[in-house]
Amino acid sequence: MHGLENIVGLIAVVVATSVVARRIGVLSPIMLVLVGIGISFIPGVLEVDLDPEVVLLGILPPILYVAALETSVPAFRFNLRPILLLAVGLVLFTAAAVGLTVHMLLPQVPLAMCFALGAVVAPPDAVAATAVARRIGLPRRIVTVLEGESLINDATALVTLRVAVAAAIGEAVDVWSITQEAAIAVLGGVGIGVVGGVVLGYVHKKVENPLIDNAISLLTPWVVFLPAERIHASGVVAVVVCGLALGHRMPTLMSAASRLQMDAFWRMVKFLLEGSVFLLVGLQLRALIEGVERTFWFTMGCLAAVIGVVIIARMVWLFPTVYLARLIPGVRRRDPSPVLAAPAVISWAGMRGAVTLAAALSLPASTEAGDYPRGLFVILAFGVIVATLVLQGATLPTVARWLKVPGDDQTQDALAEASVQHEASRAGKARLEEVAEDAPEGVVDQLRQVALSRSNIAWERLGRSDRETPSAAYARLRREMLNAEREVFRQARDTGKIPEETLRQAQRDMDLEESLLERGDL
């Protein structure tokens, strides 16, 4: 019963905090962490011990899966070089820099264990950076790079952590074993992800019931993650590859009803999981403080050093890799050098999250050489999370405005959409003429008008924004009509003219139509 109360309490706090954060204009992840820290010092309220297995096996797979579903495969492929430089190169660079720094501060701690801490704090969070980037309207390519980095960097960090911990506890580790471990992690993860994408894609194509479709979608992250982990491959890579494969083919795999239901379902799951993760991070503070064996000032000195290295390492790595790569003619022709503001804002988007804390909590109690300050290591990881979230997350919008990061050309986007919509409408009308046959002429004319209307709406977005367009007027008036129609159905249900089932069906049809009005498609 106590566990159920905690779950209900977590959800309630996530919802309430998110509402307040939106009202006052604060980013939800930041506020959730701060609220969690505050609650952690109230005895008897939401005392939740964060089990690393819950995050790494229970929460991480679905979060990564839904992020992969929403990622553009062509954009991911085009930006693969910068994504890998960040997700692999930067993680290893940061792990080494932090490891050497901590070893200088704590020379009695084995170097391998210091590298393990470096791997723990190296990967930016899969949620925080992209949430901030989308919120402040950063260019699409920067968002794609940050998303791609966060999809893969956990795999790099967890493999590095596994190798470092193995060395620290006395297992034989050499170049061959490290290479073998990395190869199994990557190739095994990719292989299982591809197989999962093919098999589950076939299953989705055969299933016609939206509820079954969504149940399969819910199971998918673990269907590929668990087998990958069982053979010591990267479950993260498997989930990402499977998600990319299914997301890219989603228009041809599922019915419209399944896609609509799945979109609504995953949006809710994503909101609750992401919010719970940040709240759980904050709730751990009191327990972590109680586990620190060192003095306050020594702990603060180590924390300041690690935070500084984490932030500076990202900058030191990013700028040379961005511009030195353009010395290669092929890279320069395919991808010219970006303005300085682009790598600058990416270098400041290094917020850490729950994976860092879960990885820290999974550190062993002792090493081959004996005990080490595990409590200090965990509090250092927690401090990096809070500092990067609050410092970088809260100031990223200001930094982006100060750097004057050039945004996407909205006019060009609207023009491209209008052009494609025009072609789509022509294709739809051509198909209509092929299959109309003996259909009533009135029905055919109405469908022709629908195709024309959708094309016109796309072109209207290129016009003046200070005047109500015909489609906007249509949407406004149709909404008023729908409200009146709903009231008639409600009164008919209340007076017993129609059963509840009839009202629900009519309400669903009207809700679907209104959702199209909100987007401007009718």
Write the layout of secondary structure elements.
Layout: H1 2-24, H2 28-40, H3 52-69, H4 73-78, H5 80-105, H6 111-121, H7 128-135, H8 140-168, H9 175-206, H10 210-230, H11 235-248, H12 250-253, H13 256-283, H14 285-290, H15 296-324, H16 329-334, H17 341-347, H18 354-361, E1 366-367, E2 370-371, H19 374-403, H20 410-435, H21 441-460, H22 470-494, H23 500-519
Antiparallel strand pairs: 1-2
Helix pairs in contact: 1-2, 1-13, 2-13, 2-19, 3-10, 3-11, 3-13, 3-18, 5-6, 5-8, 5-15, 6-8, 7-8, 7-19, 8-11, 9-10, 9-11, 10-11, 10-13, 15-17, 15-19, 18-19, 20-21, 22-23
Structural account:
By secondary structure, the protein is mainly α. Helix content is 79%, strand content 1%. The chain contains 23 helices and 2 strands. The chain has a two-stranded antiparallel ribbon. The radius of gyration is 26 Å and the shape is globular. The two termini are 49 Å apart. The model has no long low-confidence stretch (mean pLDDT 85). It is a multi-pass membrane protein. Its main location: membrane. Na(+)/H(+) antiporter that extrudes sodium in exchange for external protons. It holds the Pfam family Na_H_Exchanger. Belongs to the monovalent cation:proton antiporter 1 (CPA1) transporter (TC 2.A.36) family.
